[in-house]
Amino acid sequence: MKEEQENKGNKEKQEKIYVMGNWKMNKLPGDVLSFFDKLIPNLRKYINEKTKNGDIKLSTIKKLETIIAVPYIDMFYANLYANEEKRIKIAAQDVFYKNEGSYTGEISPMMLKSIDVNTSIVGHSERRAMGETGDIINKKIKALLDENMKVILCIGENAEDFKKENTKKVLKKELDEALKDISDKKEDIIVAYEPIWAIGTGESCSYDIAKDVIKYIKSEMIKKGFSDPKVVYGGSVNSENSTSYLETGVIDGFLIGTSSLNPNEFLKIYINSAKFLNK
After folding, report:
1. Whole-number Å distance between alpha carbons of 120 and 95
2. Please, are residues 120 and 153 in contact by the beta-carbon 8 Å criterion?
């Protein structure tokens, strides 16, 4: 039984791929209009042309999930485009763990849900660097799941831990803290492995290391009751390296930073993912 569970977590061919962007603190509302005005027509052109001539199966396109995490002030305009192009979903970059109250400056899961934003990143290393603890991350995940929302949980080691070969120790601690006492709705949690030393540095993690680490993460998730764990990679992902990451067979997609700010580059990663799934 244990071997069967491990095989579920370490499939050699992905059944679905997540192409997710994190804009961080970038783009004003006017920039949102420009981004989607370029992305959506080209996305539709690609899908229509390739499915019509048989190069890409429509069933393949349905196995791609595209999510873009935008700043709060951009959500209104981003959602207008998402409502027009159903293949794109909008997410938040962070959330608070209470639905209402005297918490100046915070945004609640209920508030996000009221504007059709049903997914949020939690635990990004840039939030952790500002003091966010494992306990707070755990509370945020529970708050999102209580509202039937989806979670993108970020975990990753810094350069020092990587050099000291403490990666798996760090990741286990972060998983244990974040997923403490979470007994159901595990299918609504996606883990994003983002080695801190590779985020926005141009120094991407090697494919072999990423494969080994993500296999480990999935094995730990299975121990926690995940029947089909989903783990994506983030850290200097671009159109030149995305296919090679997918070819590891265990990476379920990407959380893309810098490359998600450019509609053409983001589309190229989407196209690479579609071609890979279509093989």
Report:
1. 7
2. no
Residue of 273, 268, 278, 279 whose CA lies nearest to 43: 268
The confidence score (pLDDT) of residue 1 equals: 45
Place of tokens 């909008």: 90
Rounded CA-CA distance 276/279 in Å is: 6
187 is a catalytic site residue: no
Residue range 155-198, pLDDT digits in tens: 999 999 999 999 999 999 999 999 999 999 999 999 999 999 98
Contact 171, 178 (CB under 8 A): no
Tell me, yes or no, if 85 is annotated catalytic. no
Token pair for 85: 């192009």
Per-residue confidence (pLDDT) for residue 2, from 0 to 100 = 47
Backbone angles phi, psi at 154, to 5 degrees: -95, 135
Instruction: Please provide residue 237's backbone torsions phi and psi, each rounded to the nearest 5 degrees.
Output: -75, 135
All residue ranges of the chain with pLDDT < 50 are 1-6
Beta bridge mates, 18: 65, 253
Catalytically annotated residue among 124, 126, 174, 220: 124
State the catalytic residue, choosing from 126, 157, 174, 194: 194
